[in-house]
Automatic annotation (TrEMBL):
UniProt xrefs under Pfam families: PIG-L (PF02585)
GO function terms (MF aspect): hydrolase activity, acting on carbon-nitrogen (but not peptide) bonds, in linear amides; zinc ion binding
Protein's organism: Gordonia amarae NBRC 15530
EC number, UniProt record: 3.5.1.115
Cofactor note: Binds 1 zinc ion per subunit.
Cofactors, names only: Zn(2+)
Protein name: Mycothiol S-conjugate amidase
SUPFAM superfamilies assigned: LmbE-like (SSF102588)
Alphabetical UniProt keywords: Hydrolase, Metal-binding, Zinc
Source species taxonomy: Bacteria, Bacillati, Actinomycetota, Actinomycetes, Mycobacteriales
Family the entry assigns: Belongs to the MshB deacetylase family. Mca subfamily.
Role this protein plays: A mycothiol (MSH, N-acetylcysteinyl-glucosaminyl-inositol) S-conjugate amidase, it recycles conjugated MSH to the N-acetyl cysteine conjugate (AcCys S-conjugate, a mercapturic acid) and the MSH precursor. Involved in MSH-dependent detoxification of a number of alkylating agents and antibiotics.
Quaternary structure note: Monomer.
One GO BP annotation of this record: mycothiol metabolic process
Length: 283
């Protein structure tokens, strides 16, 4: 079970991993916590009449296409996008939006899904949300709550039969080392790297989460499915943007994996891992 804040996050973070496990016969469920109603239209071609007015429905249709491309199951938790607050001071979050819902309430809703689907493994974001959006931080918080308490019969007795999840991972897609590998390849081919400014800003700020990675999943056979899922989110992803700048052959040769951090486990395993299910006994 992979828990994500908005429709499109499942396609930009760990998508090929979910497609691979689904193709190998695992049951894979994406849970999207909010409808993504407050996302900007990031693809100029989709910034046209009829889109913004119907954004809820448009994003539901995009999400259905993305799930089909990945071959995974999908469910909505049904909360409203909190939006990315901008300005100084930051404006308050919109009333009733996901990040304003008491954690016990949204947590119980996720516990209910966990107890129905009964996953062995959960995937979520790290404590920084991977990206400082209030819904991403909240995604981390509800996921931790669900991992900690789904198996406890005293917790949320009205939310179904207890189920204990074996492992919980953070997805780490935004890796400096990966960007450097691609950037160098552009330069080797005498081309301007689209990551130059990004890397300069990164170097000024410092730090890479690569040191936290415990688990690398080889999933390059599923990069095409990932790209198809990304393109399904037509309002969010510019097909001419940086997501698609790196040729497929370079990606397969230079970085055929997706990266995870084993944040919690109730089973024995040894690090580094190459399988999210390592240590879990299956009948
Ligand atoms: Zn998001």
């Amino acid at each position: 079970m992979a828990v994500h804040a908005h429709p499109d996050d499942e396609s930009s973070k760990g998508a090929a991993t979910t497609a691979k496990y689904a193709a190998e016969g695992h049951e894979v469920l994406i849970v999207t916590l909010t409808g993504g109603e407050r996302g900007d239209i990031l693809n100029p071609a989709m910034d046209r009449p009829g889109i913004k007015e119907n954004i809820t429905q448009v994003r539901q249709e995009e999400m259905a296409k993305a799930a089909a491309a990945l071959g995974v199951q999908h469910t909505w938790l049904g909360y409203v996008d909190s939006g990315l607050p901008e300005g100084d001071p930051l404006p308050p979050l919109p009333e009733g939006s996901f990040a304003t819902i008491p954690l016990e309430e949204s947590g119980e809703a996720l516990v209910k899904v966990v107890r129905e689907f009964r996953p062995h493994v959960m995937i979520t974001y790290d404590e920084h949300g991977g990206y400082p959006h209030p819904d991403h931080i909240r995604c981390h918080e509800v996921s931790m709550l669900a991992y900690d308490r789904s198996g406890d019969p005293e917790s949320f007795p009205d939310a179904g039969e207890p189920w204990t999840v074996s492992k919980l991972y953070y997805t780490h897609g935004f890796l400096r080392a990966r960007m450097v590998a691609f950037s160098d390849e552009f330069e080797k081919h005498g081309q301007e790297s689209p990551f130059k400014e990004w890397l300069a800003r990164w170097d000024a700020r410092g730090g890479d989460v690569m040191g936290r990675v415990t688990t690398q999943i080889t999933c390059d056979d599923y990069f095409a499915a990932r790209d198809e899922a990304l393109r399904a989110h037509a309002t969010q992803i510019d097909p001419n943007g940086v997501f698609f700048a790196v040729p497929a052959e370079w990606q397969r040769r230079l970085w055929p994996t997706e990266e995870y951090e084993l944040a919690r486990t109730r089973v024995q395993t040894s690090i580094p891992e190459t399988d999210l299910f390592a240590g879990i006994e299956t009948p």
